[in-house]
Each structure stands twice: as C-alpha cells, then as structure tokens.
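Same chain as my last thread, 241 residues:
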Amino acid sequence: MVEIELDPNETVIAEAGAMNYMEDGIAFETKMGDGSTPDSGFMGKLMAVGKRALTGESIFMTHFTNRGAGKRKVTFAAPYPGTVVPVDLSTVGGELLCEKDAFLCAALGTQVGIAFNKKLGAGLFGGEGFILQRLQGDGMAFVHAGGTVIRKELKGERLMVDTGCLVAFTRGIQYDIQRAGNLKSMVFGGEGLFLTTLQGHGTVWLQSMPFSRLAQRITGMYASGKGEGSVLGGLGNLFGD
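reply #2:
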C-alpha cells in the first residue's frame, strides 16, 4: 500500500477502485480522465479517455481532495501482492513509460496517456508491451509491480528482458520487441517467442513475478488437478477422497 499525506485543498488521482482507506476530511469524486487539462472541453476529455480504454484501463479516474483544515491521509492498495515503486517525475525528465496496468496513483496534473511500440508486427506478436502507459508531469507517481522490483541504470548497455517482467523505464531508453533466438529456442526454450530489448541511457525497473506468470501458474495447477498436498493430494484423488 502507499499512504499519501495531503495538504489542505491538495488532490491526488488514482485508478478507480484503488483506494484502501482515507481519513475524515478527504472528499473524492470520479471523473473522466486524469484532470491534467481541465479546460480541454468535452471532446478533449473524450479523446483522453479513449486512449485509456485502449490500455484496458477504466475510462474514469478518482480524484481525492483534502477539504479539511489540516493534513489528511489517503491510502491506496495494489491489486495483487508485490511492490509499490515511487517515482519523482521531475527527476527523470518529466516522463515515465510503464506497462499498461502498473499505474496506481499520482499527483494532480500528471498526464496519464499511452505509447505504442513503433514496430506494429513485433508488438502484436510480442503480446505484452505493445501498448504502454505514458506518465508525464513534475510530481510524484506511484506504480505497482509483482514480486521483487530491481532498478537498473543503463549507460548505453543493451538489456534483454522477458516481455512480462518490464515495469517501467525513463526517457532515453530505446524500447523494442525482438524474436527470441532461433526456431528451436523459441519453441522449446520456455522463455516465450519474443523478448523486450532495452538500450540507452536511463533507468529501468524490472519485476520478478508478473501477474500474467502468476495467473498461468495457478490455472496450470488447477487444470492438471494439482492442488494442495502434492503427493498425498494425488493419492486422495486416486481413491476418490
């Protein structure tokens, strides 16, 4: 969870349904878009939420504002076990690219948009990573990742990552999806058909347990009849217990 302390009349934006608890004096309102361009008009807001719909996110975001006289706290919870990563956008060039379901909450004024992989074919076949979220602003933003998070600083090096393990990266990192080795490696390697290639100068955040990998492990266990108890569970099923 991430606990945010708001000054009077200060606002934080979050994904719909992310709030865990809030103190008395916090008022919330669900709005279309992130509120970064309040004077854009209805059509401008409609275009913004249309982009969010492409990422699979809700077209609405919740705005939490401190209406009290003193400081008040509001807390947001991640949708599954993992790590919340705080990023000060002003220190990373005002922009952060992250996987489409990583964004949790941010300071009001942060623009939450989308970014496409330039190579359409590779993006489509690569699965995860074709559409990314782009966070722009100069305040704090919080993204969520599964398992343990590793931060790596690239200084021109080339890094190849499983497409699901990428969380976020800063401006200056070149992003691409490429075929994973030869045909034999792609079919029998178990690492997927494509890998994400990152190269340049900037910061990269990686996660050890993507939600997609966790979901596949769980569904695979139930599909094969493997529940709790391993060997004893198998004997129980054998004798109809």
